[in-house]
């Protein structure tokens, strides 16, 4: 039983650190989520292209709003900031699929 206490404490410490870093990064103050700020290489561009229309439109809205706020040197009111718990990795399944397909194609081209 005593061995579980440090693991639980480490887990809560790690989560606290993750939340701190998430807020320190600053993108949430513009209403963005982690997948909105990925470096757009070819894989990410293809994953974005494959998004369903509603997710694609939501992404574009968040990015345009963030650009507008940034140009005005403003941020959203704190109640509109994206919370750590609300941040969903919406692009991840599409990105994994694109990367898997690219790797398969590279393997096929080697043969």
From TrEMBL:
| Keyword field contains Mitochondrion | yes
Q: Which GO terms describe its biological process?
A: mitochondrial electron transport, ubiquinol to cytochrome c
UniProt membrane topology term = Peripheral membrane protein
Cellular component annotations (GO), alphabetically ordered: mitochondrial inner membrane; respiratory chain complex III
Keywords carried by this UniProt record: Electron transport, Membrane, Mitochondrion, Mitochondrion inner membrane, Respiratory chain, Transport
Localization terms from the record? Mitochondrion inner membrane
Known role: Component of the ubiquinol-cytochrome c oxidoreductase, a multisubunit transmembrane complex that is part of the mitochondrial electron transport chain which drives oxidative phosphorylation.
Family the UniProt entry places it in:
Belongs to the UQCRB/QCR7 family.
State what protein this is by name: Cytochrome b-c1 complex subunit 7
């Amino acid at each position: 039983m005593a061995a579980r206490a440090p693991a639980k404490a480490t887990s809560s410490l790690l989560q606290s650190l993750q939340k701190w870093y998430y807020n320190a990064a600053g993108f949430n103050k513009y209403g963005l989520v982690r997948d909105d700020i990925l470096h757009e290489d070819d894989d990410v561009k293809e994953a974005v292209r494959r998004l369903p229309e509603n997710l694609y439109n939501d992404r574009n809205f968040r990015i345009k709003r963030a650009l507008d706020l940034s140009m005005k040197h403003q941020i959203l009111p704190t109640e509109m900031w994206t919370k750590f718990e609300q941040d969903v990795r919406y692009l991840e399944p599409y990105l994994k699929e694109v990367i898997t397909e690219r790797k398969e194609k590279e393997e096929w081209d080697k043969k």
